[in-house]
Amino acid sequence: MSSDKPEEWDRSRDEIISGEYVLGVLSAEDRRKVEARMAVDRRFAQQVRRWQTNLSGFNDGYEDIRPPADLYNRIERRIFGAGEARAPGLLEGIWGSVMVWRGLTVASLALAAGVIYFEGTTFLPGTRGKPLVAELSGKDSPINLVATFDFDSGRLSVVPAALKQNEPKSLEVWIIDEGKPPQSLGILPDNGNGEIIVTNEMRKSFTEGKTIAISIEPYGGAPGGAPTGAIVALGKTRFL
Amino acid sequence: MDELATLLGRVVLRDRAAFTRLYDLTSAKLFAIALRILRDKGDADEALQEVYIKVWRRAERYQPEQGSPMTWLAAIARNHAIDLIRARKPEASSIEEAFDLAAESAGPEEDAINASEGRRIDRCMQTLESDKAEAVRRAYVEGLSYQELADTYKVPLNTMRTWLRRSLIKLRECLEQ
């Protein structure tokens, strides 16, 4: 900032320039100046984003226009290379409906909860020593969950059981550091034990703000070490 | 709109089905933006491809607390289209030297932006005179430069700059109430 001008002046000038940038009236050279400033000045970048949100109501002025039908294939070819455009995934159809996704989110919450401990045994007294189980399924959900209650320990576990697919599938767990490729933590066992022992090497990856995701993979896990199937659920790590 | 945020999250994880769905839900709006600003179908075709390649590569930059997914996507499309036309038709710089690139500005930082803020602009636009409000809206929607606006409204370039800058200050004051 120039020292011979009051801070207030700088602030309103910055407010105007950030607004001009979002309106789009600036020259190419000035747009680069604004972007360079955004990269080093978080508060200024925040001003730009605030204008972006404030003026987003103007986006209603753009009436939807369908792009040419083959445009998506051209985008896919440019991203994924030739011969791979619109490769229909086995599970592609599952994601077509918002309702299914919402249903899955509920299931994944249970999945994320993993193991729930009960204070005392309030379940009906059953046959001691034998766990009580319930298979949880949703009409359109591709996964089933099994809730198992152990009377002796008061431990209720909710784990994925079987994937309702024509071929056997595995659920693979991933940890993602923003901007980097996902790293596999392992396959969720389908024996009713929803736990994975994380390798020593991977343990240091567990810090706050990482993304944990679960994807549906060929039986035994993603062959290339990177997720190939649909993401069932994801969320960020935080300390409780 | 929640679905778009979920889809962007899955695009971060390189989920192609999610990317397809995202395209299906948003491409008509983004194509309209590119077409309106570039005013050429071939250019808009090309721009839309570039925009979605950016979306695929940068989806992790979307932060929900900073606005809706559609606002974020529309900004990528508008910025891309505006950069293209500005590069084609050079304009005089209007930022003065004192705009210090390296300085960190003072004051508190607000990370969260109220998602409803996009709606209030309509009310605040009514505080502007009608021709100035129209110039603001056309600058945004059509991606017109200061020079193009000055020519359209038949006023000197500096007058147009003053119009828009005063309008931005008025809008900011109104939006903060």
Describe what is shown at a glance:
The complex is a heterodimer of chains A (240) and B (177). With 240 residues, chain A is an alpha+beta fold.
Which range best describes the helical content of chain B: under 10%, 10-25%, 25-40%, 40-55%, 55-70% or over 70%?
55-70%
Which consecutive residue ranges of chain B, at least 5 long each, have pLDDT under 50? Answer: none
What is the helix/strand order of chain B? Answer: HHHHHHHH
Q: Could you tell me the mean pLDDT of chain B?
A: 86
**Largest sheet features of chain B:** none
Question: Biggest interface, and residues per chain?
Answer: A-B, 83 and 88 residues
Please give the order of strands in the largest beta sheet of chain A: 1-4-3-2
Helix/strand-derived class of chain A? alpha+beta
How many structural domains in the coordinates of chain B? 2
What Rg of chain B is obtained from the alpha carbons, in whole angstroms?
18 Å
Q: Count every helix of chain A, treating DSSP H or I runs of 4 or more residues as helices.
A: 6
Question: Could you explain the architecture of this structure?
Answer:
The complex is a heterodimer of chains A (240) and B (177). Chain A is of the alpha+beta class and 240 residues long. Chain A has three domains: 7-60, no CATH class; 112-163, no CATH class; 166-236, no CATH class. Chain A has helices spanning 7-23, 28-40, 42-54, 71-80, 98-113, 200-203; strands spanning 115-117, 132-136, 143-150, 155-163, 169-176, 183-187, 211-218, 231-236. In chain A, strands 1-4-3-2 form a four-stranded antiparallel beta sheet. In chain A, strands 6-5-7-8 form a four-stranded antiparallel beta sheet, with helices on one face. In chain A, a hairpin with a 6-residue loop joins strand 5 and strand 6 (183-187). In chain A, helix 1 (7-23) crosses helix 3 and helix 2 (28-40) crosses helix 3 (42-54). The longest helix of chain A is centred in the first third of the chain and has 17 residues, at 7-23. The relative contact order of chain A is 0.09. Chain B has 177 residues and is mostly helical. Chain B contains eight helices and no strands. The longest helix of chain B is centred in the N-terminal third of the chain and has 23 residues, at 16-38. Helices cover 68% and strands 0% of the residues of chain B. The mean pLDDT of chain B is 86. Chain B has two domains: 2-88, RNA polymerase sigma factor, region 2, helix turn helix motif (Rna Polymerase Sigma Factor, Chain: A); 117-175, Arc Repressor Mutant, subunit A (Orthogonal Bundle). Classes of the chains: A alpha+beta (240), B mainly alpha (177). The interface between A and B is large, with 83 and 88 residues.
